[in-house]
């Protein structure tokens, strides 16, 4: 069986490639020109294709050459700050790039399973009621990034319904692990700690840490992607999360507890975003019931792995 991953050299894409190869898939994927390949170091048997998802003909040529049985669409501008600073680029990549992929699937590869990576961020205002949010909750995004992902999410449903394609939509909550880059929250904290370990300790700067998030290890998330491609129902969306929330302050304290030097924390107002939600409670029961997925990696192990990754990198 052949699998194609857009954004294969990204944070989740690289782990997905590893998992698929272990399961015996023949794996290929797209990379954007000029992006680093460090995440793919040591992963064998990969076919990499440099292309821009907004270049319809190049994307079509690559997919027709590979003829995948499964397509995992992960490539995106995924940083909320990037979407705020350049909304046009966010929509060109996230929405128009996805539309190109959907059209090629419709016209040339109607038999391939297509997994679209959306986000729990699309629930937006629905998350402010502090209730457990399932897949039927209203989609009320609060950022450019979330709007772009909501657009892809809805496009996937429309294409599945109108053209009979096997399209499954993943709505992961916050996922973390080694290889995640700054300026995202935990990589920023871990890298600052490692820098201070070299100098005997000091102060790290963080944004609002009085927020609750449901964190899942990226390696568990990509396992969910694979199960969804295999067992998910076409046109359906699935939340991916651990099913329990943690306060950001707790994770910061745990990382500091793993540090080799004394660390103090300072709140930096410039790192706080007004659009951030203080709490997210996501329901993962649909995914568990229909695919049998369960998270297998503890938050404690993930934090250790993140810190060790940055110790090797810095």
UniProtKB/TrEMBL annotation:
InterPro entries: NAD(P)-bd_dom, NAD(P)-bd_dom_sf, Sc_DH/Rdtase_CS
Pfam families according to UniProt: GDP_Man_Dehyd
Domain (NAD(P)-binding): residue spans on this chain: 4-303
Protein name: NAD(P)-binding domain-containing protein
Organism name: candidate division WOR-1 bacterium RIFOXYC12_FULL_54_18
């Amino acid at each position: 069986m052949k699998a194609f991953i857009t954004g294969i050299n990204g944070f989740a894409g690289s782990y997905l490639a590893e998992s698929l190869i272990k399961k015996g898939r023949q794996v290929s994927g797209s990379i954007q020109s000029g992006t680093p390949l460090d995440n793919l170091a040591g992963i064998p048997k990969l076919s990499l294709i440099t292309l821009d998802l907004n270049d319809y003909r190049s994307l079509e040529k690559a997919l027709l050459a590979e003829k995948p049985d499964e397509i995992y669409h992960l490539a995106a501008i995924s940083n909320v700050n990037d979407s705020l600073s350049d909304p046009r680029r966010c929509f060109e990549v996230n929405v128009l790039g996805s539309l190109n992929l959907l059209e090629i699937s419709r016209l040339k590869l109607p038999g391939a399973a297509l997994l679209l990576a959306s986000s729990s961020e699309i629930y937006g205002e629905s998350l402010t009621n502090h209730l457990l949010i399932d897949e039927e909750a209203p989609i009320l995004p609060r950022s450019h990034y979330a709007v772009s992902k909501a657009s892809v999410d809805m496009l996937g449903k429309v294409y599945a319904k109108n053209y009979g394609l096997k399209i499954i939509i993943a709505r992961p909550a916050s996922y973390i692990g080694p290889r995640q880059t700054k300026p995202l929250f935990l990589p920023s904290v871990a890298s600052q700690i490692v820098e201070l370990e070299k100098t005997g300790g000091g102060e790290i700067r963080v944004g609002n840490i009085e927020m609750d998030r449901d964190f899942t290890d990226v390696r568990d998330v990509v396992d969910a992607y694979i199960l969804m491609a295999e067992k998910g129902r076409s046109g359906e969306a699935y939340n991916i999360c651990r099913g329990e929330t943690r306060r950001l302050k707790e994770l910061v304290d745990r990382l500091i507890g793993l540090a080799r030097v004394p660390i103090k924390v300072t709140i930096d107002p410039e790192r706080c975003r007004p659009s951030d939600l203080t709490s997210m409670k996501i329901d993962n029961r649909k995914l568990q019931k229909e695919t049998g997925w369960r998270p297998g990696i503890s938050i404690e192990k993930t934090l250790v792995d993140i810190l060790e990754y940055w110790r090797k990198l810095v």
